[in-house]
Amino acid sequence: MDKIDGIDWRAEQDRFMALAYDRCERASLRAFKKWHERKRADAVQEAVGKMWYQWRCSLEKGKDPAEMIGPLVHWAIMHVRYDRRIAGRAPSFDVFDYRAKMTRQDMDGQGKARPAERSARINGWLDWGVDSGADDPAEMVAALEMVGLTSEDWAA
User: Fold this and answer.
1) Which residues pair with 36 in a beta bridge?
2) Cβ-based burial of 91 (10 A; exposed 0-12, middle 13-18, buried ≥19)
3) Alpha-carbon torsion 107, 108, 114, 117, what sign?
4) Residues of the chain with pLDDT under 50
5) CB-CB contact of 50 with 79 (8 Å)
6) How far is Cα 50 from Cα 43, in angstroms, rounded to an integer?
7) 8 A C-beta contact, residue 154 and residue 144
8) pLDDT, tens digit, for every residue of 1-16?
9) Residue among 28, 41, 45, 38 at smallest CA distance from 87
């Protein structure tokens, strides 16, 4: 690592290791101590990696990151906690998108999952058909006559 854009990256990495690395690692171990052991080591390293990324971005903006180590550590931990990983993240699907090809699971009367397609009859909110003849033309004409309209006036 050489001087790029006036920043000596080797010196800055040494400064990061001296000032922020241990503090970030200790805070991450404290924050993730209740996580499963197999996830904890990755989470700590993700937080340290995110801390280095924030350190680098601060330097590129012309700010001194040593003055704000506490907030940088906090946000590095928050990014890992809320799955804003910098590496190794599996793709997640929008389950409500039809392109995900996922099936909606409704519960039947027994409390068991019952798969249903979007256009299935079980989805009453998509059923636009007339079920019991509720739109009776004679009732409609009678209602129009009550308000003083004819069917021609209503249709126009």
Assistant:
1) none
2) exposed
3) negative
4) 126-127
5) yes
6) 10
7) yes
8) 567 778 888 999 999 9
9) 45
pTM: 0.55
Q: Say which amino acid occupies 43.
A: A
The rounded distance, in Å, linking the Cα atoms of 76 and 88 is 16
DSSP state letter for 8? E
86 three-class SS: coil
79: left (phi over 0), alpha (psi -120 to 50) or beta: alpha
Residue matched to tokens 């690395």: 21
Residue 70: which residues within 8 A CB-CB, separation 6 or more? Answer: none
Domain boundaries, the chain: 3-81
* One-letter amino acid of 10: R
